[in-house]
Amino acid sequence: MAERSSGIRFDRVSVAYGGGGARTVALDSLDLTVEPGEVMALLGPSGSGKTTALRAVAGFVRPTSGRVLIGERDVTDLPPHKRGIGMVVQQYALFPHMRVEDNVAFGMKAQKVPKGEIPGRVAEALELTGMAAYAKRYPRELSGGQQQRVAIARALAIRPGVLLLDEPLSALDAQLRSGMLAELARLHRELPDVSILYVTHDQVEALTLADRITVMDRARLQDVGTPQDLYRRPRTEFTASFVGNANLLPVTVGSGEKGTVSFGQAELKVPTQDVAAGATATLCVRPHLVGLGDGPNSLTGEVAEVQWRGSTHRLFVDVDGHRVKADLRELREPPALGERVTVHFAPEDAVLLAAGVAEDG
Amino acid sequence: MASTTLTAPVETTAKTRTKTPSWVWSLPPVAALAVVFLYPLYLVVEQSLRPDTGGTSLQPYADVFASSAFREALGTTVWLAVGSTAGCLVLGFVLALVIAFVPFPGGKAVAKFIDVFLSFPSFLITLALLFVYGQVGMANGLWTDVTGAASGPFQFLATPWGVLLAEITYFTPFVMRPLLAAFSQVDTAQLEVASSLGARPARIVRQVILPEALPALAAGGSLVLVMCLNEFGIVLFTGAKGVTTLPMLVYGKAILESDYPGACVVAVVNVAISVGLYGLYRVVSRRVGA
Predict the structure, then answer these.
(1) Is residue A250 a contact partner of residue A353, using CB atoms and an 8 Å limit?
(2) Are B114 and B180 in contact (CB under 8 A)?
(3) Pairing mode, if any, of strands A162-166 and A65-70?
(4) How many C-beta atoms surround the C-beta of residue A276 within 10 A?
(5) Rounded distance between C-alpha atoms, residue B179 and residue B96, angstroms
(6) Closest B-chain CA to A154
């Protein structure tokens, strides 16, 4: 359906508001390339700069410095209507006075697509999103999920090379969100040439959908990589905690045997990394990789909290003043609060983060 | 025992409530309305049916409708009202659009000033226009100073065009106020998405903003239309001698000619036109879903 395949390039893009002492940097020297046909998720908390980055591509934010390129075209100074991108936003932004088919046709009419061609393309876009049966309805007659499908159809109908999705599932309930995630994944399989920039604060959406994830915080790029890389081998503490809510334990790299760190009184074995002996570092272990009982890297502490989550239990264990989280398959007899337990993790499941890599990417 | 004590008053209250129909509560305001508004209106209608010769007949209506002064005033009133309303709608829409969607320093202050402007009396605006465009106003004074001519070129204020200008100047904020409220409800994401889909600003205004502003535009327009039909102060203050509207005709017949039946006939016609146009507005606005 897409007419052309275009990537996106942020070339040291900065965005700042205000001046003098009141100057606020919303995006700080973003250097990032989204390959043609790639799904790139911009993941970060509120105020991290991810939406500003998306709006810079759309043309609603003028970079203070740097360039934005779509394909080979520098679009930094182009008005939004000349950029040829599709955009879907959190609140759908359907035109309430237009029927579904008119909403979908809007972009094509604006772009002066030959009249004879429009009905066919509207039908095609609605078919693609499973909304063909609702063409004559008004947005108010649709559910939230259906409205979002129409918004996606409207964006795809203009056959954009680049699709911008700004928290598209945030307004949906959990069940609908899960269904729409699968729909978006299917859409991308059917439209492999469309590059997608997907802004979200939800790590599940990013991990599920993205070919690569860019983690952002405080207006800066913190980390970029495939979902598996970021999850299994985060480079920064921020990535480790934001993607997957990892245990982050302050450790000191041992001076004796290589691949050993000390955490309180415990000596722990970790994968060999290029961190100087005696240096302080952060050990990252995912909660679901922590087991209950003795094992290779054992830590003993007091149970501070037990949460039942249906198929799993989450244990919070206080070890030497630090709280360790463990996600365990549902326990028949979970430990009581205050009970002393031992947890463990395999050396290969831990990642050692050198100090200084933490926040400045 | 305790339960008896507790339930008894509740039952009494319930009985008391069912004894007093709810329509009874509407009687006091209806009665007040009847005394201060409907009764005087009835007197006007009654007077319009009582010719000077005595009795009750439609003769005053026949006399008034037959007079060319009435037909002229009716025509002038309608074209001035329609013209002013059209001008207010166009100007008000453009100004509200700029204030709402084009960020500029002082934009919020201008929006606030619109509210203040609504409280101004209509003659004040006309007086201000007289200072600027009147025969001895600033514009003509500047012209005569510069050219040495005996009089300036701005002589339109005492013509229907002067009344039109004054009415548009005065009533435009009445269109802007509901429009600004409507524009503040427009989801800016819709405008951004429309733009990203390739729509230029003119198309966004035409196809996204205007349809959503239609109810507000209709509300402001109908209000201005009715106010223009009944406007008296502006026509009087411009001193446009050749411009006679229905309210001016009522004034002339009642005060200058002491023709009360004739004045009441014109007043009834004026009220009928206003109510008719309001009814039309309600029908149209219901059809467009306003």
Answers:
(1) no
(2) yes
(3) unpaired
(4) 9
(5) 6
(6) B197
Best probe of the A interface among B101, B196, B204, by most A CBs < 10 A, is B196
Distance in angstroms (rounded) separating the CA atoms of residues B166 and B152: 19
Choices 2.40.30.10, 1.10.3720.10, 3.30.530.20, 3.40.640.10: CATH for B55-288? 1.10.3720.10
Please list, residue by residue across A61-70, b when 16 or more beta carbons sit within 10 angstroms of its beta carbon and e when fewer do: bebeebebbb
CATH number for the domain running over A8-237:
3.40.50.300
CATH node for A245-354: 2.40.50.140
Amino acid at B71: R
Token representation of residue A251? 């450790």
CA atoms lying within 13 Å on the CB side of residue A344: 12
Q: Is the Cβ pair B198, A158 closer than 8 Å? A: yes
Instruction: Note whether A303 and A341 are within 8 A (CB).
Output: yes
B212 vs A: CB within 8 A: yes
Q: What is the pLDDT of residues A192-232, one digit of tens each?
A: 889 999 999 999 999 999 999 999 999 999 999 999 999 98
Q: CB distance from B205 to chain A under 8 Å? A: no
Please tell me the predicted confidence (pLDDT) of residue B2: 40
> Does the CB of B288 have a partner CB in chain A at under 8 Å?
no
Question: CB–CB of A262/A254 below 8 Å?
Answer: yes
**Nearest-angstrom CA–CA distance, B33 and A242:** 66
Q: Block means of pLDDT (10 residues each) for chain B, length 290 residues?
A: 45 58 87 89 90 84 91 92 94 94 85 85 85 85 87 83 91 93 92 95 95 89 90 84 88 88 92 85 68
Q: Would the ipTM clear 0.95, i.e. be above it?
A: no
pTM recorded for the entire structure:
0.79
A62: chain B residues, CB-CB within 8 Å: none
CA distance B64 to B51: 11
Task: Determine whether the interchain pair B200/A81 forms a contact, defined as Cβ–Cβ distance below 8 Å.
Answer: yes
pLDDT at A50: 95
* A-B contacts at Cβ under 8 angstroms: 70
A361 touches chain B (CB under 8 A): no
B242 near B155, Cβ under 8 Å?
Answer: no
Listed by start position, the domains of chain B span: 55-288
Distance CA B211, CA A4 (A): 34
Residues of B in contact with A59 (CB under 8 A): 195-196
In this prediction, residue A5 carries a pLDDT of 64
